[in-house]
Structures are given as structure tokens and as C-alpha cells.
Amino acid sequence: MSFQNRMAVVTGAGSGIGRAVALMMAARGASVAVMDVDEATAMETAQLVNTAGGRAAGYRVDVSRAGELDDAVTAAVRNLGPLEIMVNNAGVLDGYFNVDEMDEDVWRRVIDIDLTGVFLGCKRALKEMLPRARGRIVNMASVAGLNGTGGGAAYIAAKHGVVGLTRQMAVVYSARGITFNCVCPGPVLTGLRQHSQQILGPGVPDMSNRGVAVSEDQIRALIPAGTRGSVDDVASAVCFLASDEAGYITGHSLVVDGGWRAK
Ligand code: NAD
Q1: Which among 242, 236, 141 has a CA at the least distance from the CA of 186?
Q2: What are the residues facing 84 on neighbouring strands?
Q3: Which residue in the list 59, 96, 155, 173 is annotated as catalytic?
Q4: Under a CB-based contact definition with an 8 Å cutoff, are residues 180 and 137 in contact?
């Protein structure tokens, strides 16, 4: 699987799964535009790629703001080359609120980042990809995009939305040289709870112990493989869907969950 001479944009690449995707794609030859709302971590990922002999640039972008995405993608194309791969990975948890407990503001912010952010990323990528009739779009959903568990109401609704949006785009655009897929990870140890807490601010409860997959005992009971996935497990799936080898796969939701959904 080679990404030689390909430019990839990866959002939410300042940490966790997005950083692993950026490093893995760069190791396979891609130039990577590392985008994150946390500028310092975006720059850190870009530096890691460059130190390892790859090519990357970091950009501060809030994916829920069309103008910021537009400017950053424009700069990335100018600096790194034509956009071949778009990975819409940035996301936040929602405090695991059920509907009766959730503030409208929290609902809107989570939908804005997790669903509208993916829509805006796809829209901006299509502006580059449709005229060239080539490209790969990989969106980060979740098992929570397929089942009614794994997050609160807003997170689950947003991730189901990502799966639906990806399918709709696959139906409409797949004849035009672009593929659209999602990855649906199960539990992976990252800073997601902590980062979501910081991004959403006061008004969401302490997330560190909420949810169905917090303790190792819960993981063993929930996941047939008995362990969490790693960021590289998820990055491998993203790389596959972004590769030439996956050219006839479109509209698919690739579950990477240690068997959780098989139950
Ligand atoms: P993470 O917190 O380590 O990474 C998410 C990154 O997205 C952070 O660097 C954060 O700063 C960035 N981000 C958040 N809001 C943003 C915004 N508005 N604009 C730009 N960047 C923003 O968490 P992660 O686990 O690596 O999450 C990556 C993706 O994987 C998310 O979409 C998440 O929903 C999904 N996911 C994670 C898990 C898991 O168990 N960790 C499971 C299923 C799906």
C-alpha cells in the first residue's frame, strides 16, 4: 500500500487516531496536512512526521467553521499538492447525556463538530476532487454510528449521521472517481474524554468514568477480543480504505471493534 505522491488532509490529527493516521500515511509516502483545533498538537504531529523523514504541515482549524477549513485546505493544496485523500476524523464525545438531561447548546455543539464538521470537510474536499475525478474520502464514525450505545444521544445521532451521509455521497458521486467510506471503531484508548471535556467546557459532567467501556472489567465483558483496540488498528483500516487496493469499496462502514458488534 503506497501513498507516494499523494496529499492527505487529516482532521483531528493533533492526537489519538488522527495522529496515528497521519504518521502511517506519511510513512507510506503521503504528504500530510495535519489539521486540529489545538494548534500546538497539530504542529507537534507535523513535526513528528517531518522528523521521521516524511512531509507534513500543521494547520489550526475548527472543522465546524467552513471558512477555517476552506483557508486551511487552500493553503495545504498550495504547499503540499493536489488533495487526494480526505480523512474527516475530528470529533468530540458528548458527556454521555441522554435526551432528557442534555442542554440544547451541548447537543448543537456536538452535532456541529461531529456531523456538520464531516459535511463541511467532504464539501471542501469535493471542490478539489470532482474536477480531477479522483479521490478518497474516509470519515470517522464509531460503533455508536451503528448501534444505540457507545455515547450519549448527540454523539450517537451525529455518528449515525456520518454513516448516512457517507452512504448518500457514495450513491451520488462514486461514478466520478471518488470513493466514500467510514471507519467505525470500538473502544480505543486516547485522550478523547479529556479533550472533549476541554472543548465543550463547563456544562458537561466529568466524563472520565461515564460510558459503557471505562474499566478493564467492562471491556472484557463487552468486547469479544477482551481488549481495547489501538490507534494503529484504526489507522490501518483508514489507510486501507484510502488506498488504490480499495478502489471498488465505496459506501462501506468498516467496523474495527474486537467483535463488539458481532454480539
Ligand atoms: P482524540 O481526542 O485523541 O482526538 C480527536 C482530535 O480532534 C483532538 O486532537 C481534538 O483537538 C480534535 N478536535 C476536536 N474538535 C475539533 C474541531 N472542532 N476541529 C478540529 N479538531 C477538533 O480522540 P480520538 O479517540 O483519537 O478520536 C478521533 C475520532 O475517533 C473521533 O471522531 C471519535 O469520535 C472517533 N472514535 C473514537 C473512539 C475511541 O474509543 N477513542 C471510538 C470510536 C470513534
Answers
A1: 141
A2: none
A3: 155
A4: yes
